[in-house]
Amino acid sequence: SMMAEINRDVVVVGAGAAGLTAANDLRKAGVSVAVLESRDRVGGRLWTDVIGGTMLELGGQWVSPDQDALIDTVAELGLETFSRYREGESVYIGPGGSLTRFTGDIFPVAPETEKVMVDLIDRLDVMVAQMDPDRPWEHPDAGALDRVSFEAWLRQQTDDEEAADNIALFIAGAMLTKPPHAFSALQALLMAASAGSFTNLVDADFILDKRVVGGLQQVPLLLAERLGDDVFLGQPVRSLEWGAHGVTAVSDGVTVHARAAVLAVPPVLYSRISFVPALPRLQHQMHQHLSMGFVIKVHAVYDRPFWREQGLSGTAFSPYEISHEAYDNTNHGDERGTLVGFVSDRHADDLFRLSATERKERILESLSHYYGEEAKSPVVYYESDWGTEEWTRGAYAASFDLGGLHRYGADLRTAVGPIHFACSDLAGAGYQHVDGAIRMGHLVASQIVEQVRS
Ligand code: FDA
């Protein structure tokens, strides 16, 4: 067999944005690295592919203006950005199936419902302002807020179902991609705090502001290029021996002896690795309380962006549609028009019980409710299904079950001996986003450099 055995200062497990950021920082500090990646490509949840002649971003793609860590990396790599198309009117479909066009952030609902929504957003903004996204468990009401689901919390605030459904949507379907009964009000506040405020989440032009020309996967691709031969593809790490001496990481073809390890994989995959000795009981327990959300990202490409001719921006929302949100996702300089829609949690489960043909019909039917009959006839149709990806197992990222954040959050990022943890799923600012992955990469690299030098 071709088993290579090498020595480095640090072994990085996972060539996503987090692992590659850490590896580059370490290299710059004069610390040698090897990156072991299970897939035959780098980028993890960032993946650009050409399907039916059109470039599609199958994973993460948008950049928002407060994501400094990502913005700095994009600039440093010499990449260019462009704005999401947003001219014209957005559409909202209410509980009875009626469509209304609107501009601005607040959905066009009855005046009483609008008042409830605005009050809830204000109240959530105040609570979020009391939270340090790096220490959500220190919020003055953390214990109580982590015991109640976000859905139950909303029902305690108002009897207006449409208002509650809409506010739930911004965190549940649109971000954590779990039903709002499946995570706590504290976890919801963390999601908002990690993006600066609840108001920011409501503002699609903020959250989904810019894209990278040529696709966001270029960030990990260019970071990996700088590391050259120190990135090993097709090398799932199977075991990690660790102790006072350091670590030995064993993948299918490479064994790396190092002083420290960066585990830069989603936390739901930690248990795929045999730790010798086993991780401590706290980690064994804590990691079981984190799980991936689930969303289908649907790409529909047309010969032209026909909705623009009707004065529509392409931005569409409804908590009552199987595609709860959709946008104009036309590529930079492309004549074709692309729509992207999202189908979250229970809807995604239900649709994956159907045949591919039926699923496509149901999803395009939903898009046609927003954009009209023409939406039913794309020239290219594709569903990103991260649930089938062995090395991801869901989308967008992981969150705690009820009570888990308050119980375990403070220990989540703590290193275990020479093993350091970095992933977007562990971030404060930029949580669940590429920005958070990069922040976590910088953080563990600086911790390791300090240790190596002391
Ligand atoms: P990531 O999961 O990317 O990397 C982990 C790497 O470890 C993977 O390459 C994996 O193959 C590897 N690995 C796993 N186990 C291993 C093992 N045992 N041995 C070796 N390697 C192993 N974010 C955003 O900012 N804007 C957006 O618009 C979106 N939209 C979006 C859409 C969709 C469909 C998805 C799936 C995700 C997003 N996101 C997003 C989220 C964003 O993509 C995500 O948070 C980061 O890319 C995660 O980067 P990490 O490096 O933390 O993990």
From TrEMBL:
Its EC number is 1.4.3.10. Keywords: Oxidoreductase. Substrate binds at F342. Residues 18-448 form the Amine oxidase domain. FAD binds at V237. One of its GO terms (molecular function) is putrescine oxidase activity. Pfam families: Amino_oxidase. Its cofactor is FAD. It comes from the Bacteria. Belongs to the flavin monoamine oxidase family. This is Putrescine oxidase.
